[in-house]
TrEMBL record:
One of its GO terms (biological process) is methylation. This is methanethiol S-methyltransferase. Residues 55-196 form the NnrU domain. The keyword Methyltransferase applies. Its main location: membrane. It is a multi-pass membrane protein. Keywords: Membrane, Methyltransferase, S-adenosyl-L-methionine, Transferase, Transmembrane, Transmembrane helix. It is found in: Membrane. Belongs to the nurim family. It is an enzyme of class 2 (transferase). It comes from the Bacteria. NCBIfam families: MeththiolMtaseMddA. It comes from Winogradskyella pacifica.
């Protein structure tokens, strides 16, 4: 019974993640969804900057704290280990939904590409960024990354093996293709407003800091020399920048 409950919990967490991921494309791209990065009533500039920075900081805090090995150890000492990744995914998605819901627009234009060809190219690059994110998750292990492997293994009384360290496909070009995809998707836009720019700057800073000082620190600790060699040979985020 408990295993079935964990299975349903993990499946729901994945479903909420899928909705949040798809909504994020519409939110950042100002397409398809009712509330986007540039829509809604514009508050005072100070109010918008403060609210948006707090929203992004909440996401960054949740994401960084829950990804730490110490937090995982604590979580697993209280709850079933099979729920750990699903809980991370669920809370990340809820933090994202809070951003979509409470985001305050700042619609002052920073750039507006009027050339239709260039504008279409930028929209194409925007979608390419999201595609890189999605494909990269399958190049490590999409189902383990989103907690599904763990909940099925738990149901079958199997222990989920530690994730395999990957250096193939996009991971041959850069060490963080998922983050590269996000950066492309956040910056490639024909119309950049001040609100969108704030979003892109804060998320870019967070990505670089979190990858360099948190994720890679953990990866070096767990994988060891093999990861250090990988760091020497493969660029962090921008392809072809290492000899
Ligand atoms: C959201 S993913 C982001 C992965 C990577 N930073 C990227 O941008 O493609 C975070 C998880 O991927 C794992 N990870 C990072 N690099 C990996 C690799 N080369 N092979 C397997 N797992 C990796 C980390 O341990 C972490 O659990």
């Amino acid at each position: 019974m408990k295993k079935i409950a964990i299975l349903i919990y993990g499946a729901l967490a994945y479903l909420i993640f899928l909705i949040a991921f798809l909504y994020a494309i519409g939110f950042v791209g100002n397409i398809y969804v009712p509330k986007t990065i540039d829509s809604g009533v514009e508050p005072t500039l100070l109010n918008a900057i403060l609210t948006n920075t707090i929203l992004l900081s909440l996401f960054a805090l949740q994401h960084s704290i829950m990804a730490r090995p110490k937090f995982k150890e604590w979580f697993n000492s209280i709850f079933s280990q099979a729920m750990e990744r699903s809980t991370y995914i669920l809370l990340s998605s809820l933090a994202l939904i809070l951003i979509f819901w409470k985001w305050q627009p700042i619609t002052t234009i920073v750039w507006d590409v009027e050339n239709t060809i260039l504008s279409s190219i930028l929209i194409g690059v925007f979608f390419l960024g999201w595609l890189i994110v999605l494909l990269s998750t399958f190049m490590i292990n999409h189902f383990e990354l989103f907690g599904l492997t763990q909940i099925f293994d738990n149901l079958k009384n199997r222990k989920t093996p530690n994730p395999k360290f990957q250096t193939n496909y996009f991971y041959k070009l850069v060490r963080h293709p998922i983050m590269l995809g996000f950066l492309i998707a956040f910056w490639a836009t024909p119309v950049m407003t001040m609100g969108h720019l704030l979003f892109s700057i804060v998320t870019t800073l967070y990505i670089f800091v979190a990858v360099k000082y948190l994720e890679e620190k953990d990866l070096r600790k767990f994988i060891g020399e093999e990861y250090e060699t990988y760091q020497k040979e493969v660029p962090m985020i921008i392809p072809f920048t290492k000899k």
